Structure formats: structure tokens, C-alpha cells
């Protein structure tokens, strides 16, 4: 039985991981007493005894636990960080197994893995295959639009919606400096910073990430079908990331909730030479806790 300590177990992401691991036949969760949850000495003692620690903390607290673990030298557990702190750090492995061939193997071998951001998971899954295939140039002026359920904002945003003080819908991140952009650029291999317009609505969980494209501005002026074929080919073997046909000119955000699945579609109008790429995922599932469980199974040699 492999043992795991979830630092930040009572938060939104931590609880999601704990619930999934509660029914896991080969992983046991070691918990810290609630009054000690921010006590470095207690964390250090627990980290001595476990195989892996998952960080479900604000960025600064994550960095602090990583520093603490370093005190254990060669006895330090493996670390999976769900925060934004290490996603583009050179000595960390990006925990998106479907990123490219061999990424699952890199996660298996890694001592330190950064779990991807929820919006970034959708944007990278859509863009990386098209950049690799030469259908989208790395310096293309992209716009990424997205909507998330309010659980994406953690405990404080959940409280605001539950108490009725939050708006039904809002755009945010309009300072154009969202924390997921560095990882999107790095792992989709973009050289020009996309404009990212996230939004949040009055539903608990679920997410759509959409990217509009003028086809005549792309290299080789591909048609709608060519974009779909590139994604279908790339994810043909996928269990968790799949290409799906765009059968209706609309899409809702919640049908993949509580799963580790993400669906990618290409909508378009051949006559108008326009397309919209869309990823659907659960911000708490493939966007956070379910992806974390997928990663820790790889890191613990259970998958
Ligand atoms: N919600 C989401 O959809 C996603 C979140 N993430 C990331 O996961 C991390 C956690 O986010 P989320 O679960 O939403 O946040 P929450 O606000 O829901 O939970 C954070 C938890 O961390 C605890 N905490 C804060 N500081 C410390 C510390 N020093 N030691 C131990 N525990 C601490 C908090 O406890 P207390 O309340 O008692 O202070 C709280 O329980 C963040 O980095 C976030 O960016 C990643 C992907 C998606
Ligand atoms: C609705 C909402 O506020 N969402 C969060 C992102 C949630 C998430 O995935 O953040 P990390 O993975 O980077 O921790 C935000 O935009 O900051």
C-alpha cells in the first residue's frame, strides 16, 4: 500500500483528492491533525513517513512545504503540486500525461510533478497538436475565451456564491495577466502571448475553453475538417482526452463533471472560413483533483 499526505486536505482540491483516494485499493491517505495543519514540524514528521505528498495550497505555502521536504534529503517523499508555483519551473515535470508522447513516462520517473491549471489543460490540449502539426503558427495572435464554475475560485469564491453575494456571470482577468498564461505558452509552444479572457458563472463546477480562428490566417489555410483530423489523430489512443464530433451548434459546460475526461471539438463554418476549438472538462476533475490522482498513480508506479 502506498501512502500519501495531502497538504491542504480540507480545501476544495484537497477534498476532491481525498474523496477519490478513500476508495482507492492501493493508496492510503495519512492525515495531519486539523490544529497542526499549518505546523511545519508536524508536516515534516508526516513527510518522513509517506511515499508522496500532494500540495493543495496557495502558492507561497506550497513553496514552503517544498523547502521543508528538501530538509529530508534523499528520504524526501515525491511531491505533486496542485498550485501554480512550479508549473514552468525547470526542475519540475508538467503533469499532463497527454501533452506529448513520453510525458506519462516522464511523470512516472519524476520526483517533482506540477499538476496543470484547469484552463491551461483545455487550452494546451487544443493548441499543442495544431502547433506541432504546423496548422497554427507559434506566433499566431490567439484569443482564448473560457468559462468556469465558481468552485474554480476555491473556498472563498464558493462562499461568495453560496451566500448570494456574487454576480451571476462575470468576465475577469481583464488585466490580461492570468496565472495560467506562462504554462499555456510553454507547453503549447507559443511564442506570442495569447489574449486570455476567463469568466465565471453561477454553477458549481464545469468548464469550457474556446479558441476562435480565422482559417485564412493560418498557415496553409486549412479547412475545418483538417483541424479536427489533427486532434482526432493526436488523441486516438486517449482514455481521458478524446476528440468528439461537433454535432450541434451549441455546447454546455457540466456534462463531464466528476470525471477525469476532457472532450475536444472543432466547430466551424466552411463558407465563412471560421472555426472555434472547444475543450470541455470539469475544473475540479481533469482540471484538478482527478488529474492529480492520475498523476499520483503514475508517480507511485500504480499505473
Ligand atoms: N479550485 C480549483 O478548481 C483549482 C485549484 N487549484 C490550486 O490548488 C490550490 C488549492 O486551491 P483550492 O483547493 O481551490 O483552494 P481552497 O481555498 O479551497 O483551499 C486551500 C486550503 O489550503 C489551506 N492552507 C492555506 N495555507 C496553508 C498552509 N500554510 N498549510 C496548510 N494548509 C494551508 C487552507 O486552509 P485554511 O482555509 O484553514 O486557511 C485551505 O483548506 C491552489 O494553489 C489553487 O490554485 C488547481 C486547480 C484547480
Ligand atoms: C474561477 C476561478 O477563479 N478560477 C481560477 C483558476 C482555477 C485554477 O485552475 O487555478 P490553478 O490551477 O492555477 O490553481 C482563476 O482564474 O484564478
Automatic annotation (TrEMBL):
Which CDD domains does the record match to this protein? AGPR_2_C
Question: What name does the UniProt record give this protein?
Answer: N-acetyl-gamma-glutamyl-phosphate reductase
Q: Name one GO cellular component term.
A: cytoplasm
Give the molecular function GO annotations: N-acetyl-gamma-glutamyl-phosphate reductase activity; NAD binding
- Which residues are annotated as active site? 118
| Name of the gene encoding the protein in the UniProt record | argC
Q: Which residues form the Semialdehyde dehydrogenase NAD-binding domain?
A: 3-107
* Pathway recorded for this protein: Amino-acid biosynthesis; L-arginine biosynthesis; N(2)-acetyl-L-ornithine from L-glutamate: step 3/4
Annotated catalysed reactions: N-acetyl-L-glutamate 5-semialdehyde + phosphate + NADP(+) = N-acetyl-L-glutamyl 5-phosphate + NADPH + H(+)
Q: One Pfam family for this entry, by name?
A: Semialdhyde_dhC_1
Q: Which organism is it from?
A: Lichenifustis flavocetrariae
EC category: oxidoreductase
Q: Which family does it belong to?
A: Belongs to the NAGSA dehydrogenase family. Type 2 subfamily.
Q: Where in the cell is it found?
A: Cytoplasm
Biological-process GO terms, alphabetical: L-arginine biosynthetic process
Q: What is its EC number?
A: 1.2.1.38
Q: What does this protein do?
A: Catalyzes the NADPH-dependent reduction of N-acetyl-5-glutamyl phosphate to yield N-acetyl-L-glutamate 5-semialdehyde.
- Alphabetical UniProt keywords: Amino-acid biosynthesis, Arginine biosynthesis, Cytoplasm, NADP, Oxidoreductase
PANTHER family, sorted: N-ACETYL-GAMMA-GLUTAMYL-PHOSPHATE REDUCTASE, CHLOROPLASTIC-RELATED, N-ACETYL-GAMMA-GLUTAMYL-PHOSPHATE REDUCTASE, CHLOROPLASTIC-RELATED-RELATED
